[in-house]
Amino acid sequence: MAAENLDPSANGELTAEPDGGQQGEPASQAPPPASPEVKGQGGEGGPGSAAGSEVTGLYPAALEDYEEGEDSEGELPPEFYRLWRATQENPLDFSSWTDLLQYTEQEGHMPATRRVFAVFFARYPLCYGYWKKFADLERRAGFPVRAQEVCVQGLQAIPLSLDLWIHYITLLQETLNMNLPESTQHIRSTFESAVAAAGMDFRSDRLWELYVDWEREQGDLRAVTAVYDKVLSTPTQLYSQHYQRFKEHVESHSPRHILSTEDFLRLRSEVMRGSASVSTAKENEEVPPGEDGPPGLDAANQATEEEEQKVRELLLASRQEVYQQTELEVGKRWAFEEGIKRPYFHVKPLDRAQLRNWQSYLDWEMSNSSHQRVVFLFERCLIACALYEEFWSRYARYLEQHTVEETRAVFRRACGIHLPRKPNIHLQWATFEERQGNLAEARQLLEHAERGVPGLAMVRLRRVGLERRGGRPERAEALLREAVRQSQATPLHAFYSIKLARLLLRLQRNPGKARRVLLDAIEADPGNVKLHQNLLELEFSGDVRQNEGNILQCLSRALSSGLPPSARLLFSQRRLEFLEDFGHAVQSLLTAYEDHQKLLKEVGTKKRGAENGDPDDPEERKLRLEDGAGSTPPVAAVAAPLASDAVAMAAAPAPMLGGDLASSQAAYSYGAWYQQQYGSYGYQNPWNYSQYYPPS
Fold it and tell me: Among 4, 119, 177, 301, which is least packed, fewest CB within 10 Å?
């Protein structure tokens, strides 16, 4: 991988920039920059803030910049390059990456380690464990500022990672100079960013408890109460434990110390209004020096112990209502959360039960919750299900109802990082951009998708359709001609030839050019029945009186081209019908009738042989299935005299193509083409265009 390719947006490629999330959701909370003053800082000078940088922003150089056996900061052993080549030969082999990372960690070669991690995270940014490992390596090597910036970049890639947030906060507590007041504020702002980004996670209790304990250590009881107020309204797994700890917090301290002045006065006022009377003497009583109340509460309004207890009870009663509502929300989600067995990213597939659970959970949340919670659940889902394009597609469809930019960001993450070789999600992104009027962007996306999965017909056809809808029919024709040329000697050659001929006939009204395309294709593949069928329909689309010669020539070509007997029987019957309805010479009709009788006997003999135990020809069986030909030949035409041929053949099951170049299933079977050519990709429902164009 060249150095410039580490930049995911370089060379016109789809960007692989880890998205910071969507507006109005936790992912939008960027972690704070590392503090400029760190205990034990040594080695390299502290880089600037990493906030806003890309995953590979710190280490832009790639390993290919190094000649094998040498490095600017030390020689690398051959074993390193062997492992590196293994990752480049098969980038999807996760084990080869882990072997390489483990080797660089053991060797302790930090320049190589940084570059390997940079390339690894460009492909697998959701592996929070490796972000933690990388930060620890930087710290042990004596670069605490780099360690902090590694955590910042990891949190930009996976802002919902509770483990990475806790690791980052712990790193700050251990490396910042806590004698500086800005260090305390920096850690507090990091906690705020953490709970804003990941605090809604059902399993976020450890982060909330860490936040509460840290604020208690700072001696700020009002801040402890503020944190409890947030967590008590958040449905988490240990919601009951948080409430019990909050009650202990309230019982252990005076309300005036744990509440803001405004909240305390408001609650005390409610208590006073509920009292029968207020002693005037008590209001005028002076208090000893040093016994002043909180700011805004003068000495004449000091609360008695009894009043404080009532304030405490009123405070707990208000939080009890919040707790009960949270308990109700937890109960609604408990079964779904129990079904999540792997909330983290892994390259191994998820089992069907977990996939169904995520689908059901999303269904419920979308029907019962706010937009913020729906977005948060999608973000959680797309950590565990990052390799499943149906979840990305669903997320994009949901966001498109709210904002265009956030939808585009989801497509960018899906196509640029997690699903670079999945064509369906690329096609959906191109369709989205086309709906927004960004034809140039849609064109570029389709070109990139075709480079990623070359030879896939559905992508080429979408490119053709885009050019046609964009008013560039000549470009659409050029794309199909290019596809015809590139697919020489493959079954796709006939497929693209039929598509090109259809475009030339129906859109450009040029039957001559369409005929030439099909004749060239028949010359290359004379035994392809679909080509003969489509050429015949092309000839029938004109004036049959003017085009009799071309029609008969087309039928004769098909009958003499070595097609299976059952296919030739269909063309023979079609020739009889044409001569009976439109022919000018009776001798031609008689000759065609005699040839047809011979062919009927040939097919009948073959059929009787199969009934006696001979295996049926798979090609003929396929033709019957595709062309709708019945297992019984038109026996009426065998015994009927010439005068009644028209009646007999009208009753026979002759498959007519409907007058369109490729309108019938027989002549234009998308499914059959797809299964023959692209079954190995494992894509389902390949030609269901409605999945790319959802109903408005």
Answer: 4
